[in-house]
Amino acid sequence: MYYTDDEPATSEKAPDAGRPILTMLRNDFLYADPLDPVNSTAFSYTGALRSDPLAKLRSNQIKDELASIDAYKQEVSKRFDGAKNVFEVLEVAPMPKLKPFCAGLPNIKRLKGTIAIAGNVRLGAFAAGDIVTVHHGSMRYSAKVLINRATTGFLRWWMFPNAIIGKPLPTVSTIDSSDLIPEKGGLTEGWHGVLVLSPEASDIALGDALTLG
Length: 213
What we know:
By secondary structure, the protein is an alpha+beta fold.
């Protein structure tokens, strides 16, 4: 805002000043003139909020995308003998030693010798209690899912929540007992997460897969 002797108050857009993003936000929220919708950035900004980015999609484009997704699912299922649930293994590690006061003695006993894996659910869903088939090269064997947790980071971040990036991992995990409770609904298609498997899966490796059904 500025004033002159012969003019009323006038609102101006702020110059760039080397900070284009901050300037854009300032102008969008502060420079609003309902009587001048052409030059008022706030007017166009609120109009953009009401727009639907999917409105321009044609029905045949949507059908093509859905057909592509279906084709991918059929390809993945066919690769694993028609399985309806497929988990891609990206990381593998034995469950670390747990602190009794963090994890609780029942969990320490239950998870002794188990294997933690991280990866993506390509088809279906996986949950605690499922008996899955491990595809390890040409070998096939069964294991039980003990824990399922949705995560966004690396497996070691889940196992060692207090680890410091760039330093060696601790010898004992401080993971809390609440993070050892299976999540309701399991890991569903498209999610990244952690599964803890029974000791039968000790040979599982990066690049293997789990199937169910």
